[in-house]
Amino acid sequence: MTCSHWLDVPLKMRAAALDFPNGPAEEDEIPDMVYCELDRHPYGQHIALLRDLDVARDGGAVWLTWAGWGRDIDVQRFGYCPSSSPGRDDACWLPSDHRGGHTWERYE
Q1: What is d(CA 88, CA 29) in angstroms, rounded to the nearest whole number?
Q2: Reduced to 3 DSSP states, what percent helix, strand and coil does the chain have, rounded to the nearest 5?
Q3: Where along the chain do its domains lie?
Q4: Whether the Cβ atoms of residue 66 and residue 74 lie closer than 8 Å to each other
Q5: Burial of 54: CB neighbours in 10 Å, binned 0-12, 13-18, 19+
Q6: Whole-angstrom Cα distance, residue 8 to residue 99?
Q7: In terms of CB atoms within 10 Å, which of 4, 34, 57, 100 comes out highest?
């Protein structure tokens, strides 16, 4: 089960996400609100994807991190988790070194 924490993304954080180079040629808008994408956890940072970066040039993404219900908000670039499912047909789309399970485990 995923974490239930959510956050309204502050305008300055949406703007900061666009400052990272290597965005794809066509990209979605930065979301106004995000949910933590990690497995449910009782403590520690929450994390949500704000923007994919060009796979060929970067291979990572821009993530919003925060503590509690909106403290210590930050925008950071992380590479994707290198884990893949046992059959290697599904990849984990969370950042590298994330806590909890991999996304492909949620759908097994």
Answers
A1: 30
A2: 10, 35, 55
A3: 6-102
A4: yes
A5: middle
A6: 22
A7: 34
pLDDT in tens for each of the 108 residues of the chain?
889 999 999 999 999 999 988 887 777 889 999 999 999 998 899 999 999 998 777 778 999 999 988 889 999 999 999 887 777 778 888 999 898 888 878 765
C-alpha separations of 107 from 36, 54, 95, 102, 103 in Å: 18, 26, 18, 10, 8
- CA dihedral 6→8→97→104, nearest 10 degrees, is 50
